[in-house]
Amino acid sequence: MAEPAAETPAPGTISMVLMADPVSLSVVRQRFRVWLADLAWPDEEVDDIVLAVNEAVSNAVEHADAPGFASEVRVAARQFSESDGGRRIVVGVSDNRRWCPPGVQRGLGMLMIRTCMDDVRFESDHEVTTTLMTSVRVAPHRRG
Amino acid sequence: MTVARQDRGGALVLAIRGEVDLSTGGRLAEAAGEVLREAGGRPVVLDMLGVEFLSSSGLGVLVSLNDEARSIGTPLRVVVDQDRPVMRPIRTMGLDDVLSIFGTVDEALAG
């Protein structure tokens, strides 16, 4: 089988740049649902990933200096397999604002992310804050 | 998200459909807040059977409405399909113990 062309995203990855505006939320949810369905992700775990991504993007939108066209939120995710074939999704959500995540995470949104994902961490670098989330493990994808 | 209001059996029923998130939660707060203040002690039922997605901002709206309803002495009843994705965030946040939750509108009307 031919290798995908260079501009074709690798299988098992997704990335998008969104306006830092609440209207972007339904877009990101829909794109993740379609992508995870393609990866044959189990329904309940899809709901959890979509909930967590929605909360992380909501945080980024709320931290944006100037909501709308002037600010962007970048979302990228990939599937990875563990040595025994178990699978997880890693998602990064970045905004172009340096905000310091509180040492003790508060708020319903952060609680939702922590409940729906196995691991959450933050990286702040210059003018970018990234929320990095790792999903719970799901069974290997059985083909055919 | 759409909100439709109906007076039914001495109660005010607000049927909410679609997705409740950061972009739509404000409209829900406004519409339901108005109904609560008009209810004058009559029960208010939030029919969320048609809700496909509920974010933490939507949960925050439900908690505020619940607090307001208590303070003005109006019963607020929330109808949620137990199997749908909406119940997951409610349980996750422990709000199934805070909100008055019912499985059908008829049950909510009966109290």
Characteristic terms for this protein:
heterodimer; A: 144 residues; alpha+beta; Heat Shock Protein 90; 5-stranded antiparallel sheet; 3 helices; 5 strands; B: 111 residues; alpha/beta; Transcription Regulator spoIIAA; 5-stranded mixed sheet; 4 helices; 32% strand; globular
What secondary-structure arrangement, pairings included, does this model have?
The complex is a heterodimer of chains A (144) and B (111).
Chain A: E1 13-20, H1 24-38, H2 43-63, E2 68-81, E3 87-95, H3 108-116, E4 119-125, E5 128-134
Antiparallel strand pairs in A: 1-2, 2-3, 3-5, 4-5
Chain B: E1 2-8, E2 11-20, H1 25-39, E3 44-54, H2 56-72, E4 76-79, H3 87-92, E5 100-102, H4 105-110
Parallel strand pairs in B: 2-3, 3-4, 4-5
Antiparallel strand pairs in B: 1-2
Helix pairs in contact in B: 1-2
Structure description:
The complex is a heterodimer of chains A (144) and B (111). Chain A is of the alpha+beta class. Chain A has one domain: 2-Layer Sandwich (Heat Shock Protein 90). Helix content of chain A is 31%, strand content 31%. Chain A is built from three helices and five strands. In chain A, strands 1-2-3-5-4 form a five-stranded antiparallel beta sheet, with helices on one face. In chain A, helix 2 packs antiparallel against helix 3 (108-116). The longest helix of chain A has 21 residues, at 43-63. The radius of gyration of chain A is 16 Å and the shape is globular. Chain A starts with 12 loop residues before the first strand and ends in a 10-residue tail after the last strand. In chain A, 32% of the residues are buried. The model of chain A has no long low-confidence stretch (mean pLDDT 86). Chain B is α/β, with parallel strands linked by helices and 111 residues long. Chain B has a single domain, classed as STAS domain (Transcription Regulator spoIIAA, 2-Layer Sandwich), CATH 3.30.750.24. Chain B has four helices and five strands; from the N terminus they run E-E-H-E-H-E-H-E-H. A five-stranded mixed beta sheet of chain B has the order 1-2-3-4-5. The chains are: A alpha+beta (144), B alpha/beta (111). At the A-B interface, helix 1, helix 2 and helix 3 of A face helix 2 and helix 3 of B.
